[in-house]
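retry 2 of 3: previous attempt timed out while embedding zinc ion. Reduced batch size to 1 and resubmitted. Inputs unchanged:
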Amino acid sequence: MPLYEYRCLDCNSKFEVLLKDLSKEVVCKNCGSKNVKRLISAFSFASTGDSGVKVTPSSGCSACSSKSCSACGTS
Ligand SMILES: [Zn+2]
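retry 2 succeeded.
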């Protein structure tokens, strides 16, 4: 199950949100604040560790391998 990791900018707690929940507004599970920031989830990427390496945008579609989802209509 894909997870996104968020950090609350108010209480500084970290929490994970299931991908299917991203259509909803994400709020902190600790304090309920909407002031949250999505972190890069390490396991979502074949992360390189090398500096300057391009990373596949997380906004890409999981249903197609394209970097742009303008063609696949998944939204
Ligand atoms: Zn919070």
